[in-house]
């Protein structure tokens, strides 16, 4: 059995296996090797007695400061041999966090709720990061060992059971991965070699451009491919790609897209890369043949911001620009509101327009709520805390009847009353206090008082953020669930509602009344309380000249749904 580790420029590397230290032999390219039998291991570099886990560890049963453990991917008994994958176009996504999706906070308990997602009409389940991070609870974006699955969730076998169970129900799985930074606790990679190149807002940034970066890039690419091949994941959501500083001629993301497409051909199932980006740059989702990176899709915050302002009236911070007249129409028709235009929040022009003739809408993921837009509010309050059920239903109708790829955040479908707040559980007292102070300062800059910010280290914050599934038994929450389910079913029944052609998509915005023209179908959402309007919060679907506003009527040529 061979243990290997990349540690260029080091004079001595040892591997301690099951309590016994063994000298490693230097090989080509800065790699060290040792043939030893055993399962539990860590490395010692240049005589330093600090035990270091394997940067490419597949399992960390005792946390990120404990020894790594051998793990054989071939030993898991998959049952999804007939799974042919799930393509992104036409699909509906559902974002969830394993630790707060159920009271138990494990993969196995999440499996018990997958039938709920099938009933709702979901196609792809997007899971927040499951990589190993310090502590027991957290959002997952502070991971430091990207190939090891967080043990409190159920470890690697638990995640494989989750993916296998999802595939058995016809659900694809999207995994959120973080390649723009390492977490603040347990980031030991720089002890081995030139993995890091400065810092960004969240922590150490990876060296993907400077000397020694070839192997660092390979580290990232191999991790991405492992999730797709070894864990049978169908897509990756790439966190904050704008923070990946790559000045090479071929960007890391383009290189990743090339390798993922090659793997998809070999596995004979679609594999997708979905980016989160603050750049409003259509090149990310432009095909490589046209000079782009070739990613399948990207999150579209502008659509969220325009919808949020239209539905809630909030205008603080980066929402300010989206209070402009016709802002929702602009964002809906163009995906980007800022497309080479002035951004007051940034105090500069921002973005670049998309080519609506050649760029399909399914390349942009739209949402009313997501983990960031809820969790980065001081109280972690969801939209139902601000707007009426009817207004929320209007927003959902716009999202599901748009040409974009819709995504639902866990509990949104029943207007969950539980907040989703920022939480972590760093054991180090100094780091824990630094995180508390940092969050309070950040929220203070956005106008929230210190008393409004929950303690992210308090276990009660996690409990408060956990879904209360019993809410589905109450009429109001059950009614919203039926609305979401009906809208998704409507999208599937009528291809016009999922048509991604942006050059054929037209929106009318007359003050608080918005009309989406979807081929022969019109969606009218009325948020006005004027005498002309029927009722504030009305959702009206019309086919041709037939407009029905009170009941769900299904016929060969007409249908309508009104929520609340």
From TrEMBL:
Primary localisation category: cytoplasm
A Pfam family this chain is assigned to: Alpha-amylase
InterPro entries: GH, GH13_cat_dom, Ig-like_fold, Ig_E-set, Trehalose_TreZ, Trehalose_TreZ_E-set_sf
Swiss-Prot/TrEMBL keywords: Carbohydrate metabolism, Cytoplasm, Glycosidase, Hydrolase
Pathway recorded for this protein: Glycan biosynthesis; trehalose biosynthesis
SUPFAM superfamilies: (Trans)glycosidases, E set domains
Domain of life, per lineage: Bacteria
Enzyme Commission identifier(s): 3.2.1.141
Localization per Swiss-Prot or TrEMBL: Cytoplasm
Matches recorded under Gene3D superfamilies: E-set domains of sugar-utilizing enzymes, Glycosidases, Immunoglobulins
Keyword Cytoplasm among record annotations: yes
Domain Glycosyl hydrolase family 13 catalytic span(s) in chain numbering: 95-491
GO molecular function annotations of the record: 4-alpha-D-(1->4)-alpha-D-glucanotrehalose trehalohydrolase activity
Keyword flag Ligase: no
Chemical reaction(s) catalysed: hydrolysis of (1->4)-alpha-D-glucosidic linkage in 4-alpha-D-[(1->4)-alpha-D-glucanosyl]n trehalose to yield trehalose and (1->4)-alpha-D-glucan
Similarity comment: Belongs to the glycosyl hydrolase 13 family.
Protein name per the record: Malto-oligosyltrehalose trehalohydrolase
Organism: Kibdelosporangium banguiense
């Amino acid at each position: 059995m061979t243990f290997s580790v990349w540690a260029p420029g080091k004079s001595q590397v040892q591997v301690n296996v099951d309590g016994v230290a063994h000298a490693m032999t230097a090989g080509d390219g800065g790699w060290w090797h040792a043939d030893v039998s055993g399962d539990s291991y860590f490395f010692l570099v240049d005589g330093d007695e600090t035990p270091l886990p394997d940067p490419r560890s597949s399992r960390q049963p005792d946390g990120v400061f404990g020894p790594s453990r051998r793990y054989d991917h071939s030993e898991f008994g998959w049952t999804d041999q007939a799974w042919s994958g799930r393509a992104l176009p036409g699909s509906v996504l559902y974002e969830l966090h394993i630790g707060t999706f159920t009271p138990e906070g494990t993969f196995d308990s999440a499996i018990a709720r997958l039938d709920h997602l099938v009933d709702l009409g979901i196609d792809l389940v997007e899971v927040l990061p499951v990589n190993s991070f310090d502590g027991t609870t957290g959002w997952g974006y502070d991971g430091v060992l990207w190939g090891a699955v967080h043990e409190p969730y159920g470890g690697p076998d638990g995640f494989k059971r989750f993916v296998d169970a999802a595939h058995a129900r016809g659900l694809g799985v999207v995994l959120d991965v973080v390649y723009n930074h390492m977490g603040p606790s347990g980031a030991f990679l720089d002890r081995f070699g030139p993995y890091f190149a400065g810092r960004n807002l969240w922590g150490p940034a990876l060296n993907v451009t400077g000397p020694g970066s070839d192997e660092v890039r390979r580290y990232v690419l191999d991790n991405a491919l492992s999730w797709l091949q070894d864990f049978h994941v169908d897509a990756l959501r790439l966190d904050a790609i704008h923070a990946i500083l790559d000045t090479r001629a071929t960007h890391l993301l383009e290189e990743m897209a090339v390798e993922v497409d090659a793997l998809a051909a070999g596995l004979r199932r679609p594999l997708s890369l979905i980016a989160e980006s603050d750049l409003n740059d259509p090149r990310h989702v432009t095909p490589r043949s046209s000079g782009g990176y070739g990613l399948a899709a990207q999150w579209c915050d502008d659509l969220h911001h325009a919808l949020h302002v239209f539905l809630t009236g909030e205008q603080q911070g980066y929402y300010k620009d989206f209070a402009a007249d016709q802002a929702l129409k602009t964002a809906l028709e163009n995906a980007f509101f800022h497309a080479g235009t002035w951004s007051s929040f940034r105090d500069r022009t921002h973005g670049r327009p998309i080519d609506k003739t050649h760029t399909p809408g399914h390349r942009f993921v739209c949402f009313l709520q997501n983990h960031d837009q809820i969790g980065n509010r001081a109280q972690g309050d969801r939209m139902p805390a601000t707007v009426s059920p009817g207004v929320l239903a209007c927003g959902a109708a716009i999202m599901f009847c748009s040409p974009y790829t819709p995504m639902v955040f866990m509990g949104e479908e029943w207007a969950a009353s539980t907040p989703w707040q920022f939480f972590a559980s760093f054991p180090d007292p100094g780091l824990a206090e630094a995180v508390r102070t940092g969050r309070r300062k950040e929220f203070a800059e956005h106008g929230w008082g210190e008393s409004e910010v929950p303690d992210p280290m308090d276990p009660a914050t996690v409990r408060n953020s956990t879904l209360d599934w019993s809410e589905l038994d109450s009429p109001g929450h059950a009614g919203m669930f039926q609305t979401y389910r009906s809208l998704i079913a409507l999208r599937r029944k009528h291809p016009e509602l999922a048509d991604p052609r942006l050059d054929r998509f037209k929106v009318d915005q007359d003050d608080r009344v918005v009309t989406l023209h979807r081929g022969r179908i019109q969606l009218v959402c009325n948020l006005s309380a004027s005498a002309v309007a029927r009722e504030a919060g009305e959702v009206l679907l019309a086919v041709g000249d037939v407009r029905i506003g009170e009941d769900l009527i299904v016929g060969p040529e007409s249908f309508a749904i009104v929520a609340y």
